[in-house]
Write a structure and sequence with these properties.
This protein is α/β, with parallel strands linked by helices and about 375 residues long. It folds into two domains: about 10-305, TIM Barrel; about 315-375. The chain is about 40% helix and about 10% strand. It has 14 helices and ten strands. The protein has helices at about 40-50, 70-75, 95-105, 125-135, 150-155, 180-185, 230-250, 255-265, 280-285, 295-310, 320, 325-335, 340-350, 360-370, and strands at about 20-25, 55-60, 85-90, 115, 145, 160-170, 190-195, 270-275, 315, 375. Strands 1-2-3-4-5-6-7-8 form an eight-stranded parallel barrel, surrounded by four helices. It is globular and about 65 Å long. Residues about 1-10 have low confidence and may be disordered.
């Protein structure tokens, strides 16, 4: 049994400095799930260019391009292997040993600096135990967990000496602020933030004036399924971005620099994982002046987001309509007061240990209530 996280991260420590760093997220270079794959040589060049820009932390997974991300990283980083950290993952239904050994072959490496359980689904505790065995054998220098609830993370800390926790986090999507980030701070876990640019929305590409319609993504692009590229949520986020642009201009930053700077200024964030498919995208993202924002700028951004994303209020018809709904729907409806953040509602439900809830589910449901005249927002 383990009484918390491993405070001394060993060889991984040199890649986790006192200040938040930018790391390279390897999903897009795998060539699948992000629109047109692009030339493989361009994607390999993006990895090497990131190293030239000073990036020392690279995160991947076997599922990224069916192993292609790992193969590319292995080839592109081979000459620099001793001075970079490579993190990979084991799928929630995969055999840990077979998965990690397959990753090591594709990476052409004897070890990874960090192996993470991609998501805790059935038998996840057994998988975490097996990953610890592989760590003891030297196949991984450190262990991590991704996409877990705070309850699962607390349980995981009794099973293995975790070093990191990875989850989505950006200036729009803040579920982790309610429970997971405070837990990481209290238990000395390094926090890795993925999706820092909201799957490309915070590049400004899909929100440039004049006000555009929601983007249409090609078949196979995972963004076709993301709710914030549609409907009311897209409009809210577009409105925020329009109000952020003058702040970025005043600070001498691109929108990308502003979004990454916001994250780098957040307490308890260790590494911000940003992706790129070519050298031009690396230049846009891993800029020499990439830096945390000042507290005043951070507060101005937070005020804009809070203003646009004000929680809905119930109409007088809501209580009667909710009487016949399921427990989750009633739970949300009872907490709509025009003040309580949707992240807080989702976290309170998840505290119960039932099927977890995230703010996105609350937003989608509340938008339906607004359309039916049962809420105002």
């Amino acid at each position: 049994m383990y009484e918390g996280a491993r405070a001394d991260l060993g060889p991984l420590s040199r890649f986790l400095g006192a200040e938040t760093r930018l790391g390279f997220g390897g999903w897009a270079v795998g060539g699948a799930g992000w629109g047109a794959a692009g030339d493989q040589r361009e994607r390999a060049t993006a990895i090497r260019h990131a190293v030239e820009r000073g990036v020392t932390f690279f995160d991947t997974a076997p599922s990224y391009g069916a192993g292609e991300s790992e193969r590319l990283l292995g080839r592109a980083l081979k000459a620099d292997r001793a001075r970079v950290a490579i993190a990979t993952k084991v799928g929630p239904r995969d055999d840990p040993r077979a998965s990690l050994e397959g990753s090591l072959r594709r990476l052409d490496s004897d070890y990874v600096d960090l192996v993470q359980l991609h998501e805790p689904l059935e038998r996840w505790e057994w998988r975490l135990e097996k990953l610890h065995t592989l760590q003891v054998e030297g196949k991984a220098l450190a262990l991590g967990l991704c996409n877990a609830t705070h309850l699962q993370l607390e349980r995981a800390l009794t099973i293995a000496p975790l070093a990191t926790y990875q989850a989505a986090y950006n200036l729009f999507d803040r579920d982790v602020e309610e429970r997971e980030l405070p837990l990481c701070r209290d238990r000395d876990l390094a926090f890795l933030a993925y999706r820092p640019l909201a799957a490309g929305l915070l590049t400004g590409k899909y929100t440039a004036p004049p006000a555009p319609p929601p983007p249409q993504f090609a078949e196979g692009d995972h963004r076709r399924q993301i709710y914030w590229f549609k409907g009311r949520e897209f409009e809210r986020r577009r409105c925020v971005i329009e109000r952020l642009l003058p702040i970025a201009q005043r600070e001498g930053l691109s929108l990308i620099g502003l979004a990454l700077g916001w994250l780098r200024a957040r307490p308890d964030v260790s590494i911000v994982l940003a992706g790129a498919k070519n050298a031009a995208q690396v230049d846009e993202t891993f800029t020499p002046d990439s830096r945390p924002l000042t507290p005043d700028v951070g507060r101005a951004i937070d005020a804009i987001v809070a203003d646009v994303f004000r929680p809905a209020r119930p109409t007088p018809q809501l209580p009667e309509a909710a009487r016949t709904w399921g427990e989750r729907e009633r739970f949300i409806a009872e907490r709509l007061d025009g003040k309580t953040r949707y992240e807080a509602i989702a976290a309170e439900w998840t505290d119960r240990g039932d099927k977890p809830m995230i703010a996105a589910q609350v937003k989608v449901f509340v938008d339906q209530l607004v359309e039916q005249g049962l809420a105002e927002g």
